[in-house]
Specification:
two-stranded antiparallel sheet; mainly alpha; about 5% strand
């Protein structure tokens, strides 16, 4: 019986990228712009699940100043803020209550549900505001700036 010795060499395959492609990519990245996302920057300051009426006033002002909210949504948001609540006739909104935090998303969902069940008022404006609050809640955890190529 004859046994043959075989040498098996291992081969490593390395794909080489042409230098021109590497240079082109570097050129593109060198000219890329880092852009800020102002909506996410504002959202990062506030927690929609733990926000006070005073903070809602600040949030509404920031969004309106940067023209990042529709007028109707802005006006609805103000109804959840301290300035509006403290001026209601017979208001029971004390300083402590205007500074106490609540889950504005859950609260608005409850108000919409109640309005639909009782048929007491249209809910379109509340639902639109709820969409804004949900978007803020999602965007608060996103990067505040990104790379635009």
């Amino acid at each position: 019986m004859e046994i043959n010795n075989y040498n098996v060499a291992s081969v490593t395959y390395v794909q080489k990228v042409p230098t021109s492609q590497v240079a082109a990519k570097q050129q593109t990245l060198a000219h890329a712009e880092v852009i800020a996302d102002p909506f996410s920057e504002i959202a990062a300051k506030y927690d929609m699940t733990d926000i006070s009426p005073r903070e809602i006033d600040k949030l509404a002002a920031e969004l309106q100043q940067k023209d990042m909210i529709e007028d109707g949504d802005w006006l609805m948001m103000l109804t959840k803020g301290a300035e509006f609540l403290s001026n209601l006739s017979g208001s029971h909104y004390t300083e402590d209550r205007l500074n106490s935090k609540t889950n504005v998303i859950a609260r608005l969902e409850e108000q919409i549900d109640t309005a639909k069940r009782t048929g007491s008022s249209p809910t379109e404006s509340m639902e639109s505001l709820l969409d804004v609050f949900r978007e803020l809640d999602i965007r608060k955890d996103l990067p505040k700036e990104g790379l635009l190529v």
